[in-house]
Amino acid sequence: MKRNVLIIGAGGVAQVVAHKCAQHNDVLGNIHIASRTVEKCQEIVDSVREKGSLKTAGELQAHALDALDIEATKALIAKTQSQLVINVGSPFINMSVLQACIETGAAYLDTAIHEDPDKICETPPWYANYEWKRRELCAENKVTAILGVGFDPGVVNAYAAIGVNEYFDSVSDIDIIDINAGSHGHYFATNFDPEINFREFTGRVWSWQNSQWVQNKMFEVKRTDDLPVVGQHSSYMTGHDELHSLSKNLDVPNIRFWMGFGDHYINVFTVLNSLGLLSEQPITTAEGLEVVPLKMVKAVLPDPASLAPKYTGKTCIGDIVKGKKDGKDKEIFIYNVADHAEAYEEVGSQGISYTAGVPPVAAAILIAQGVWDVQKMVNVEELDCKPFINLLNEIGLPTRIKDADGDRLLSF
Amino acid sequence: MKRNVLIIGAGGVAQVVAHKCAQHNDVLGNIHIASRTVEKCQEIVDSVREKGSLKTAGELQAHALDALDIEATKALIAKTQSQLVINVGSPFINMSVLQACIETGAAYLDTAIHEDPDKICETPPWYANYEWKRRELCAENKVTAILGVGFDPGVVNAYAAIGVNEYFDSVSDIDIIDINAGSHGHYFATNFDPEINFREFTGRVWSWQNSQWVQNKMFEVKRTDDLPVVGQHSSYMTGHDELHSLSKNLDVPNIRFWMGFGDHYINVFTVLNSLGLLSEQPITTAEGLEVVPLKMVKAVLPDPASLAPKYTGKTCIGDIVKGKKDGKDKEIFIYNVADHAEAYEEVGSQGISYTAGVPPVAAAILIAQGVWDVQKMVNVEELDCKPFINLLNEIGLPTRIKDADGDRLLSF
């Protein structure tokens, strides 16, 4: 049975989600895109039509919506008869949109954890602060809610579960590595909204080590890996969503997340941060003007959406899993490589938006097909991840595995 | 005969000038301090009284003055019966203050070249664009005007003239080196107003080489010297006032200025400059607020005046002079070393303000004594520099010379 989709958000990831839903509207039905600025939704609608992404005839409409307004969101779900809501808006709206889904019975999918605008890096596990408080309500209302089903979190959670379930007797370490080896050609730019981007790096870094939460500072712990296709890259231990569910759902004592940064990025970040230019607190100039430094820095940086047309190179994101199999030490790397220029050619966004936007569409298809229509709240690793990996192989994000037997496509 | 002094400006250099004038008010007479913000002048007056710097009883008063208003400046000169005007205000007021001196007959002294707020790095020689256009008028009115009589320009011009006149048959190279080996203890700070400080480095670098003007970019040409007291330091070819008079007044084919910068300073400067954060052109934030980036950077940086109490270490500024004497190659280094903490202890300012503020007081004393009362406009190298060096030895800025015969105090 077809299920209509309501996409909330109108940024680079929403653009990918819309194109991918359109490519599969024989399964997904009508597509509606809503955000505060209806013009941005309309631009995505126009882009989908221009590229001829709709597989079959079907509705494709833009809507204005303040997604913090639960009643307005419920009304739009009802009016558009949407059974699937893909939330790729700001991380501040998750709980409102989830509530609207619970009250209307629509399935809920998102790609990043809920955030309170006034708080950075709350107490772990982060999901317990907001989303998981609605688990019982979802189950009572038979609402399917799949949390964090982008690439990271999302696909990397599936890689972790598959590693644990298929390749080991026991797993000691999961290291999730996210490397963007692409080039945007500017002196410095962030790949998404600088305000959100820098929030990830100005607080504490939580990791799961020896089965407990450990705190570090950003750029304190570094590793260097020689990775498939992209080669040798350094990455830094970073706080990230997926650790906060994997640590609960998998019996693995060490789970860490590593984000790749070049020396140049770190240097610019360090200078700006040290001078107080990444602060969200307003300062006053000698002339008496009140300014938030971070907002001015954002204004001088390139608009992330403007980077896509000239973005070249590839991303490599995956899980290094270590443990025991038949009494012996074993290590595997499950990963995907995506190409910025190919992503832009297909859906008009760069590779980072592409890797984040394709997985929730795969999840939506699996719900529509009844495979993942679990009628409760889950994180990705709690689901059967094999059909997810197989479907991603078909729709643009192939998974590979590298181990003692070589480097090959992973499918089931 | 005593000559009353009007000090224009109320920054760190004005603070030094006021203290030094007070220490010599048996020669200099009454002291008046004027700037737009009378409170800042009053703070200096209070500081002079607190430290008991006045040598003999005498007037010491603060005044409010817009020094761009020539009539107001003339009126204040008349009212205070000042015969000496020491202009250590912003570089934008030189021509107005000079005009007021010409019309009242007061002697004029400054420590930096005139600047037009809308222009950076004009055509050389810079003095010809503004100051030198009044040479004839000064001579006609028998007005003594000594241009650029701080440390650099100023004392280093005297060093150049003494090198040429006393130690060589012919001079091929004068390299003026300015090293601040002090530490203010902050991640980053400028030693004077960031808006003025960064202006020096964002334009072209003019130097005098093979008897003609040569252009470079900032941080393009580097040298490293092992200097007395402060040790090994790197410096970069920088555009600076003194080249624009020395090139005319001395028969020396190569005259260059080198400013010392640490790698950290250059890195922070490069990041800010590359991102557009040092721009004087307003930008608009996503929220519609119009902001001049440089003014916001200034607001997050430490107030230069706040650095003095904790400043430690020393400055070393001097001239490396190379040429021929009795048919042989010869090289000398004439220099001063100043100490930040000692300067603060004596006059409540750090060493950079101290080196800039003591020389114009020495010049004022020499005018009052009749030694430098030349009744025309001159740059320092056109005067007899020996009494200037001797006086500076006595009042806080001793000159040393280092050559084949060793390293010793220089006096005449």
Commentary on this structure:
The structure is a homodimer of 412-residue chains. In chain A, the strands form 4 sheets. An 8-stranded mixed beta sheet of chain A has the order 10-11-12-7-15-16-18-19. A 7-stranded parallel beta sheet of chain A has the order 3-2-1-4-5-6-17, with helices on both faces. A two-stranded antiparallel ribbon of chain A has the order 8-9. Helices cover 35% and strands 26% of the residues of chain A. In chain A, a hairpin with a 5-residue loop joins β13 and β14. The longest helix of chain A is centred in the last third of the chain and has 18 residues, at 351-368. Chain A is of the alpha/beta class and 412 residues long. The first copy, chain A, has 2 domains: 5-151 and 351-395, Rossmann fold; 155-343 and 403-409, Dihydrodipicolinate Reductase, domain 2. In chain A, α1 crosses α14 (351-368), α4 (70-79) packs across α5 (94-104) and α14 (351-368) crosses α15 (386-395). The A-B interface holds A 187-188, 267-268, 271-272, 274-277, 279, 283-287, 289, 291, 293, 295-301 and B 187-188, 267-268, 271-272, 274-277, 283-287, 289, 291, 293, 295-301. Chains A, B: Residues 5-146 form the Saccharopine dehydrogenase NADP binding domain. Chains A, B: Residues 150-396 form the Saccharopine dehydrogenase-like C-terminal domain.
Shape of chain A: globular
Largest interface: A-B, 26 and 25 residues
Question: Could you give a short account of the major beta sheet of chain A?
Answer: 8 strands, mixed
Count of all domains of chain A = 2
CATH topology of the largest domain in chain A: Dihydrodipicolinate Reductase, domain 2
CATH architecture of the largest domain in chain A: 2-Layer Sandwich
Q: Roughly what is the average pLDDT of chain A, rounded to an integer?
A: 95
Please identify which CATH superfamily of the largest domain in chain A we are dealing with.
Answer: Dihydrodipicolinate Reductase, domain 2
Report the top-level CATH class of the largest domain in chain A. Alpha Beta
Low-pLDDT runs of chain A:
none
Structural class of chain A: alpha/beta
Describe the oligomeric state of these chains in a short phrase: homodimer
